[in-house]
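User: Structure please.
Assistant: Input sequence and predicted structure:
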Amino acid sequence: MPALQLLRLDHAPALLAFEQENRAYFAASIPDRGDDYFAHFDVRHHDLLAEQAAGQHFFHVLVDGSGAVHGRVNLVDVADGSAELGYRIAEKSAGQGLATAAVHDVCGLAAAEYGLTTLRAVTTLDNAGSRAVLARTGFVRTGEIRLGGRPGLRFVRDLREAGEPARTDRAARPDARRP
């Protein structure tokens, strides 16, 4: 099973390959990142790592033994004990429980390592898989939203009610950065 790791500079090639290979698959259920994302990927990757180092976001990737990325789980816009959760799993890895396990683990990290008390999430109404992951990991529907012109739903999770701790390995912890 791929391991959850805090995003690092050396993840860039595998992360770009993951995003390119799954672009059409992701665009079927969430707004497309656009051509600019891919054209300026390296600059954006460096910028995101700087924002992560400043504590604004926590980006995670699911990496297998060969270094291939199977998914990503991000906590963005960290402020006042809260952040927004976002995730995407590769088409070839979908339906294997990776999203549920990774979101569960990130919820544990958010509470135990990052000091967060609340996570927010949104998904399009037609993304049944994402809605199921959020329900299985303790998120509660709080309202409706439009995402890229499509109907969607808002969710929230109070991490102070978190049950089990995350199944963390040192690679996922912010103090375990590798050179």
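Confidence is low (pLDDT under 50) at residues 164-179.
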